[in-house]
Specification:
Length: 74
């Protein structure tokens, strides 16, 4: 099974887009802004929705594994 790269996932793609320097920003300023914006995103209502959705996906995958069995290696 091949795992997706960070950029191929929604959080990875979002993080990559948020790290792009805006006009007039240097790399350090863009990094500082990214950390601040990422924290605000996670602490807001969207962050709770994101956590809830991630938990739902994990529980569904565990349930599927119990009911159907593990996926075969391909």
């Amino acid at each position: 099974m091949t795992l997706p790269t960070a950029e191929a996932t929604l959080p990875g793609a979002l993080a990559a887009a948020m790290q792009v320097a805006k006009p007039g920003e240097n790399r350090e300023q863009a990094g500082d802004r990214f950390i601040r914006d990422w924290r605000e995103l996670q602490e807001g209502p969207f962050g709770q929705l994101w956590v809830s959705a991630a938990m739902d996906e994990m529980i569904s995958a565990l349930h599927e594994r119990l009911v159907v069995g593990p996926r075969s290696a391909s």
